């Protein structure tokens, strides 16, 4: 299987989770698959496998490391580094989107307000989280704090 095929498959793998958050936010299947941690667990296993192949299996670019911008660039210059990094983003963005959904339900943020936030979290990660916090504040359903105070 090529790197491109694997990249396409991991991209597609998160789409059902996002669709469930948008269209069936309170459904049992959403709780079971998205809110339970099954998605992060599944993608986490993929992440561990690709990370292990990159570190121990020789599937990496020379000069890669976390000590400099050049080292990070080298990591992402190899297709395995891209798969590792991209799966990292996918796991955390979906995790944040699921948190936003649970938090919105708990606080009574209207779902129609949440949906654009989920889109931006899916596409641009931190931008969506910021948008959600602004929307939450604008609707009077909470402030900037990520925890109940």
Structure description:
The chain contains seven helices and no strands. The chain has helices spanning 3-23, 28-35, 38-56, 69-75, 79-107, 111-124, 126-138. Helix 1 (3-23) crosses helix 2 (28-35) and helix 1 runs parallel beside helix 5 (79-107). The termini are far apart.
Number of DSSP helical runs: 7
Largest pleated sheet = none
What fraction of residues sit in β-strands? Answer: under 5%
Shape: elongated
Mean pLDDT: 92
* Uncertain ranges: none
Helix content: over 70%
Number of strands: 0
Terminal residue distance = 49 Å
Structural class: mainly alpha
The ordered string of helix (H) and strand (E) elements is: HHHHHHH
Question: Compute the gyration radius: what is it?
Answer: 17 Å
Structural descriptors:
mainly alpha, 74% helix, elongated, 149 residues
Summarize this entry quickly.
The protein has 149 residues and is mainly alpha-helical. The chain is built from seven helices and no strands.
SSE topology sketch:
Elements: H1 3-23, H2 28-35, H3 38-56, H4 69-75, H5 79-107, H6 111-124, H7 126-138
